[in-house]
Amino acid sequence: MGKVRTKVVKNLAAKLLEKYPDLFTTDFEKNKRLVEELTDLRFKHLQNRVAGYITHLVKINMRASEAEEAESAEVEGEAEAESSGG
Q1: Which in 31, 60, 70, 86 has the greatest CB count within 10 A?
Q2: What would the CATH number be for the domain defined by 13-72?
Q3: Does position 63 have pLDDT exceeding 80, yes or no?
Q4: 49: closest CA among 12, 2, 1, 17?
């Protein structure tokens, strides 16, 4: 089963990713420091949850973009094969 994340964690992560999309990476430690700097959360546990969720979302976005790139390269390869063979 998956992890349960509260609305607070999801909303904070979404706002941070929307406001600073290029700052966050797949590195949890770096994201943890960024969340600490960019928010005024007093609880380290909550900061870590937000940073972990942001890391998770960034990884999902990276996988999706890689899949799109692979798919477009495959389509281009098929188009070249059809044009040279036909």
Answers
A1: 31
A2: 1.10.60.20
A3: yes
A4: 12
**Cα(47)–Cα(39) distance, rounded to whole angstroms?**
9
Rounded to an integer, what distance in angstroms lies between the CA atom of residue 6 and that of residue 8?
A: 5
The residues spanned by each domain of the chain are 13-72
Q: How far apart are CA 51 and CA 46, in angstroms?
A: 9
- Dihedral of the CA atoms 4, 6, 12, 14 (nearest 10)? 50
Which tokens is 42 given? 């007093």
Read off φ and ψ for residue 16, nearest 5 degrees. Answer: -65, -40
Do residues 50 and 41 touch, judged by C-beta distance below 8 A? yes
